[in-house]
Amino acid sequence: MDGPPENDLCSICHSNFNIPCQANCSHWFCGGCILQVWEHGAALHPCKCPLCRREITLLVPSEASSRQSHMVNTAEILRSIERYNRQYGERSNGVMQRVQDLPFLLRRLLRDIRDPQRTLPVVIRARVYLAMVVSAIYVLSPVDIIPEGLLGVIGLLDDLIIVLICVLHVASLYRAVLLSRHGGS
Fold first, then answer.
1. Does this model's pTM top 0.90?
2. Domain ranges of the chain
3. In terms of CB atoms within 10 Å, which of 37, 74, 106, 172 comes out highest?
């Protein structure tokens, strides 16, 4: 889904979306509305989502918004979103922030991989596939750090850790792609 759900309204202005942007918490807002929340709060810190109170470290405008960048107001808001992403997009508050961002990043990554119109860099695409293949080989192979046969369910822990590490790696790769697209880098 590249835009907000149909028949949905911005939770800030309660109107139809104008320059819809998705935050890393997966909520949609008007670009101008979420920037006003940020500007009227502590402008030295990323704003918090008005719905879930998570820190917003990445704003991704919809493709339709990016195509309207020739309009003056739209171009100005998109530049402000790029500035916001440059300022806070690299910020990572540890593993918990990365785990919380996983659903958002993985949904968008899967959509980008399946869509032939998307321009996902070949190097990133190859690294994603390599991480998935390596983790699958490890999980399916009989060689384990903690053998399942001896420890039962606890033996699955190393498999889960390897999968989590690979998923976090893939998500951070895709976050870098989103930052390069929407952060002006």
1. no
2. 1-91, 93-185
3. 74
